[in-house]
Amino acid sequence: MLKKAMKFVVRGLAGSVVDTFVLWLLTTYLFRSYFATYILSPSLSFEVAAFNNYIICYFWIWNHRVQHNKKDFFRRIPAYNATALISFGVKLVLLLIIERIFHFDVVICNLIALCFSGFVNFFVNERIIFKEEKIIIETAKEDIGK
């Protein structure tokens, strides 16, 4: 579990880089209003980072628990995204609280909030999205039938 947790931290760092870079691009070059800066931009940057993180989870962290085919890859995305959105909700609430209390820049608020929401995300991935499934081997079925 510790090895997976460490990989998850690396995934989180990669996701944070993607999230922060997309957020920076959006707030620097595209959006100016408070809503667009503090609600829309973090939402979009989080979704891009969530897909990046899903790819890392699927092919690196929990690769021994997946079937490595298109059907399995796409089957897990909705549940992963739903749990990522819950984690995002936690992040967004924290981001807004931190901004209101300390008046930090949105990027700093985002980084602090990401640290807290990542803990929730790891345990949901470990126990729900990429949980170990009992595999029934076809030869065992045949042996039972004999």
Could you explain the architecture of this structure?
The structure is a single chain. This protein has five helices and no strands. The protein has one domain. The model has no long low-confidence stretch (mean pLDDT 88). It is mostly helical and 146 residues long.
Percent range of helical residues: over 70%
Give the uncertain stretches in residue-range form: none
**Average of the residue pLDDT scores:** 88
Q: List the helices and strands in order.
A: HHHHH
Number of domains: 1
Q: Given the C-alpha coordinates, what overall shape results? A: elongated
Alpha-carbon distance between the termini? 39 Å
Query: Count of helical segments?
Result: 5
Structural class, please? mainly alpha
Salient structural properties:
mainly alpha, 0% strand, 146 residues
In a nutshell, what does this entry contain?
The protein is an all-alpha fold.
Which helices and strands, and how do they pair?
Elements: H1 2-30, H2 34-61, H3 70-102, H4 106-129, H5 138-145
